[in-house]
Design goal:
It is a single chain. It is built from seven helices and seven strands. It is α/β, with parallel strands linked by helices. Helix 2 packs across helix 4.
Length: 226
Amino acid sequence: MTPVSPELSVTEKMRAEWDKRARENARYYIATAQPEWSDDEFFESGRENVRREILTDMINICQGRDPKQMKVLEIGCGSGRITRALAETFGEVYAVDISGEMVAQARKALADLPNVHIFQNNGMDLAVLDGLQVDFAFTYIVFQHIPSREVIYSYVREVRRLLRPDGLFKFQVQGDATIQTVEGDTWLGVPFSDEDAVAMARECGFEPRYRHGAGSQYFWLWYFKT
């Protein structure tokens, strides 16, 4: 893939490079387990993620609410792999992605789902959703690609702005500090230690109630809005 100009900002580079990946082979760059995916395989892989990370955790996520009455937010929806599964579980899904190419593919693939709302955002905040209030926020294999701690902090603060009181933001970050990142790379994101995760939660107004997988690529965080 041809690199973009080094003069671009972090978010401009993320957008340009994810647009390139989307045009080249969106589904592979979203889920690298195999180079080619059928529709059924691709969306079933998203359902498996939802079964594993959400359906096993509904007490924390729903807190007694009917999931069909809940509004949920997905950051980094790509071409809709997990978005479809979320829409099959929850009442309304609001999904954002920095890449216009990904957003176009997601809107086309999920056009049959009236409870899905997909937006292109600027890659570091959720201003495109204005004053929407959501009951739960989720992102998976997205923040592990963001090379800027400032951008991730911005997203966390924005989720707090939109999340209802006591609501949960469940997300995954890169926890493996042994991975060597290159400045400006938009594939390998900044790593977080357990101490980093706790500090980010407290600085952004969350309670870091649970954490799992510190030191690994799949470091899961449960941030509850205080």
